[in-house]
Amino acid sequence: MFKSFIGLWLVVFAPLFFLLYPHSYSPIQLFNNHIESTRFIQAYRGSFYLLQQALQSTSADDQQHKLADLQQQFGFELKLSRLSDFANAPAVQQDLINNQIVFINSEPEWLAQRLTDSQWVVMLAVDFALQEEIKRGAQGTVFLLKQQLSQLPVESWPSTLKQLEPHFAARLYLQTKEQFSLTPLQNRQMAEFGFSWKPEADGQLTFITQLNDSTYLIAQALPISSANPFNIIYLLLVFVVLISLCMFLWVWPLWRDIGKLSKAASDFGAGQLNAQASLAKTSAISALGAQFNTMAKRIEELINNQRQLTNAIAHDLRTPLYRLRFAFEMLDSPELTPQDIQRYRERISGSIDDLDHLINQTLVLARYNRSSLPLNMTRVMLADKLKQDVQIMQLQQPAVQFDIQIAPSLQQQTFYLDESAFMRAVNNLLANASRFAHSQIRISVQQQGEHRYSLSVEDDGEGVKDEDKTRILLPFTQASGSTNTTTGHGLGLAIVQQIAQLHNGTVLVENSLLGGARFTLCWTDNQDAVRHDTN
């Protein structure tokens, strides 16, 4: 859950922070710079054209003085800079060399254009409130327009405006007082500033200035605001699409993996016990998929073992039952001698013992086959317990030599074990070795690693074939492959395997240097590990 939350959070907010955090590559900042630049360049393109004309007629030495005089007529700061001053901004410098009007987003904001064939750059500050911006920004332009038109006859003014219009982002035309009436607000602006303006509903501006007693100059459709609704909608659309795409790229693999897991669960429920969920390790639900696969494999093993156990029990029960039935039938025969009657009674007793042993072993295996079995874990002096059991086994098998080899460091060490279960496993290994050994059995205890130990039981018998080394650990299976032998029912090693698993270990079947088989019980002497595995 935490992994999924962090992934979704990063996918959603990383682009958001990238968009909103102010830095040189911020899309919002770049977008804002673009629309601000476009608006200011359109609004003051005509002003720079007139400034170029006014300064070109002045010598290089007098341009500073001329610009200082013009500064009095402009509401914004007006200054000259050298082209070399922009060396630290190569892109801006190149645009100035190409005689383009450049917007410089700083404090304050500037518009700049190189004087034609000169190393000087005219810079105009453009950073005030709207009304102040209009008032200050229009003063110099109005002055230059009036100055240029005052040198021409009134009849040529319309044609002159037509020539100037391509250099402005507005329509320039003349109207008489009779054709145009001013509002009271516009009259006050005209009296105070010598010009007036009127914001239009489409976000543009109509600008009015009086040229003489009877004529007004109108500049229509000047840009007034950088906030274009279509630009905002476009920006929001890009933002939504970007975030949606990132979320989809995260959600789609999750949805795909959930579908795989759901199909595997459905197949498993339909009886396909080998169904597995194939998920990549990078998947957000890889841990859940791994747990499902482990659960499905465990259930499949349990069902197969239960089926095999049921079949094997049914098979092994038939033999002693048939012997019992035959013996009872024979006891009814009048021709039996007392010796025959005694022999059949012994067969009946042996069959009953055989049934009792089979049932007990089956119950023991069923008990240790439960992974939830609560073990009685205590600290056990294994070396002492092992020596005691070997002494008892030596008395039962006097023809076999038992050799115990315990590492010196483990002689006095205690181990965290279920004593009853663990010693049952040891006794089963000793009994199995005694059944096949010719004359020698070796028992050894070694440390394999940190908290990892092994107990080996070897014999000098015939050994175990390679193809049987895994199979003989299954219930009701013996090295010969038969489930009906006089040497046992094939449950002893299966019980050892289950007890080893309950101690977070396993059983290995190998060839012994003595010539027979070597059974090694490996386990973990780690209190936390055993508790985790058994609870």
UniProtKB/TrEMBL annotation:
Residues 252-304 form the HAMP domain. SUPFAM superfamilies: ATPase domain of HSP90 chaperone/DNA topoisomerase II/histidine kinase (SSF55874), Homodimeric domain of signal transducing histidine kinase (SSF47384). It is a multi-pass membrane protein. The chain crosses the membrane at residues 232-255. Residues 312-527 form the Histidine kinase domain. InterPro entries: 2C_sensor_his_kinase (IPR050980), HAMP_dom (IPR003660), HATPase_C_sf (IPR036890), HATPase_dom (IPR003594), His_kinase_dom (IPR005467), HisK_dim/P_dom (IPR003661), HisK_dim/P_sf (IPR036097), Sig_transdc_His_kin-like_C (IPR004358). This is histidine kinase. It comes from Neptunicella marina.
